[in-house]
Design brief:
heterodimer, A: 2 domains, 6-stranded mixed sheet, 9 helices, 10 strands, disordered C terminus, B: two-stranded antiparallel ribbon, about 75% helix
């Protein structure tokens, strides 16, 4: 671990009024390492995500991204640096075509957001790039359908493609397989692994589904009542008695 | 296939434009003047639709920029200005500047809050126009004593001739509409629809949503100002009632009638609005009741507006055809 961590968090804490939701969270993510944050409902996972990804400024602690202090930097400024996130609820542009969904981040990526006279249709390069991204996640065949009309699992893939189009260094996924059927979950797991190995994208994810976490993540952090309870690889987490009691309900099988 | 569809659209637009061009040669003068008003109000409604239909922002102050444009033209021409071109550039510029200042404060808020702030500024502009007697002439308005003639190929055409006025308004509106057409089909246009669809997602892929909104607000304000300038030339005066918030409801009604988010919807809505007004006021003076009777089912049963519904209907028909 001599490399600078891509994400380093020091003593992160956040409170809503007097209610302290997360506290003293410190962790470091090495580039390329698939990291997961798990914890029961209400453990503070989403608060953690929002504090790191620029949704709001955390009340305590620092966040470093690639060695730069990004504490409290708003989301749209983190994106050009390479930090992107997805949401627990599918977050796409519903009444645009799948292609347009991907063109949106690509236009921004090429700093063409304010180009109000050239025709978008003539920007063949953008369309080619969008096709590449759609091909990466495997929904190229739906390119000209309305995003809203796709099956649920494909919508989540659209969201993944939106994120990938900005060429991120670190992607924070908030429950990427929530609500998916087993097949869709399988496809998503496969995709995340493939993207991580083939393109070197670093993924950080939260998950409810233990199977997903254990099959994807090489480093796991356990959040419980706002503090980190344990960390380690899957064997370490499985063996940890505190985790079993808090999260797995003492009945971690398989 | 997409190309033939595009060709059809372009052909359709050219056809409609030619129909508009023949207007003054086949219609009585009275209807030519109604058509002029339809074009001007249609442009105002289309500027509103850039905000409402494309960006998802309900602006209730669009009449404010229309009025600012009208007064800019009136002031320029009544203070000795003698260029038609400059008088309209003044209207465009005044609309843009007013929208930049007001928009700076509006675009931070969404939905009803945005609507209320724009409404509030619209009311302020109305009061200024109504009460600043020395500048605006108060409720009497600012009459144009002199409208410069249109100079074309060494010949002069008077804008007091309704047919000349119509063709002049048609040309300017067509240029503005062409500009809008480019805007909604540009990368920036895609950003605007993305704001309407999901502004949070847009911010989380790196867009400064407020700056984009402000840019849309300024473009819409400039075009509304231009429409106001034309309206001032058409009526040979600027009056405070066109800044009134009641006037702002007109582009809203026209857009909803014709179809919001449909490019030509507001223009179509303006045509229906004036057509109905003419038709019904010849029978009863309570024409607004009938407007309401038509508007309510349109909103309930045809959320895409009348033009939008017609287009949907044509699309399904061509799909079914072998």
């Amino acid at each position: 671990m001599s490399e600078t961590p891509i994400l380093q968090i020091e003593n992160l804490g956040h409170s809503y009024g007097r209610y302290l939701v997360i506290r003293d969270i410190s962790l470091a993510v090495a580039p390329g390492e698939l990291t997961a944050l798990i914890g029961p409902n209400g453990a503070g996972k989403t608060t953690f995500y929002n504090a790191v990804s620029g949704h709001f400024r955390p009340t305590r602690g620092r966040v470093h991204f690639n060695g730069r202090d990004i504490t409290g930097v708003p989301a749209h400024k983190l994106v050009p640096m390479g930090l992107l996130r997805s949401f627990q609820i599918t977050n796409i542009f519903p009444n645009l075509t799948v292609m347009e969904n991907i063109l949106v981040p690509l236009v921004l990526h090429h700093r063409k957001g304010f180009a109000f006279l050239p025709s978008l249709r003539r920007k063949k390069k953008l369309y080619r790039e969008a096709e590449e991204v759609l091909d990466k996640v495997g929904i190229l065949s739906s390119a000209y359908r309305l995003a809203n009309e796709l099956p649920y699992g494909d919508k989540r893939l659209v969201e993944m493609a939106i994120v990938l189009a900005r060429n991120p260094k670190l992607v924070m996924l908030d429950e990427p397989t929530a609500g998916m059927n087993p097949e869709e979950t399988e496809r998503m797991i496969h995709l995340i692994k493939e993207l991580a190995t083939r393109f070197g994208t670093t993924f950080f994810l939260t998950e409810h589904d233990m199977k997903v976490v254990f099959s994807v993540a090489s480093m796991i952090y356990v959040l419980h009542q706002g503090v980190l309870l344990a960390q380690g690889d899957k064997e370490a987490i499985r063996a940890n008695t505190a985790v079993r009691e808090a999260y797995l309900g003492g009945s971690a099988r398989d | 296939m997409a190309d033939t569809k595009r060709m059809q659209t372009v052909a359709g637009i050219i056809l409609v434009f030619i129909l508009f061009l023949t207007g003054p040669f086949i219609l009585p003068v009275y209807w030519t003047m109604i058509l002029t008003e339809i074009l001007i109000m249609g442009l105002l409604a289309m500027s509103f639709n850039l905000l409402f239909g494309y960006t998802g922002l309900l602006s209730f102050g669009q009449a404010g920029f229309f009025g600012v444009g009208a007064y800019a033209t009136a002031l320029f021409l009544s203070k000795g200005g003698n260029s038609l071109f400059v008088s309209l550039v003044a209207a465009l510029g005044a609309g843009a500047v007013a929208a930049l200042v007001i928009g700076f404060l509006c675009v931070r808020r969404d939905e009803i809050y945005f609507a209320m702030i724009t409404l509030g500024f619209g009311m302020m502009l109305y009061t200024v126009a109504h009460n600043w007697l020395s500048l605006t002439g108060g409720s009497d308005g600012l009459p144009l004593l002199n409208v410069p003639a249109l100079n074309l190929l060494g010949r002069e055409f008077s804008l007091f001739d309704p047919n000349v006025m119509y063709l002049f308004v048609l040309t300017v509106t067509a240029l503005c509409i062409f500009f809008l057409w480019r805007v909604v089909r540009s990368p920036f246009g895609l950003m605007l629809t993305a704001i309407r669809e999901n502004k949070q997602r847009l911010a989380f892929v790196g867009a400064g949503v407020q700056h984009l909104r402000l840019a849309a607000f300024v473009i819409a304000g400039a075009l509304a100002g231009m429409a106001g300038g034309l309206f001032c030339l058409f009526n040979a005066m600027a009056t405070p009632d066109i800044l009134h918030w009641g006037f702002s409801s007109r582009p809203v009604l026209m857009t909803v009638l014709g179809g919001s988010g449909i490019f030509f919807g507001p223009l179509f809505g303006a045509a229906i609005f004036f057509g109905l007004e003419q038709l019904i006021t010849s029978m009863t003076e309570n024409w607004m009741i009938f407007l309401g009777i038509i508007l309510v089912p349109v909103v309930i049963f045809f959320p895409h507006g009348i033009l939008g519904t017609l287009m949907d209907w044509m699309r399904t028909r061509t799909k079914r055809a072998p």
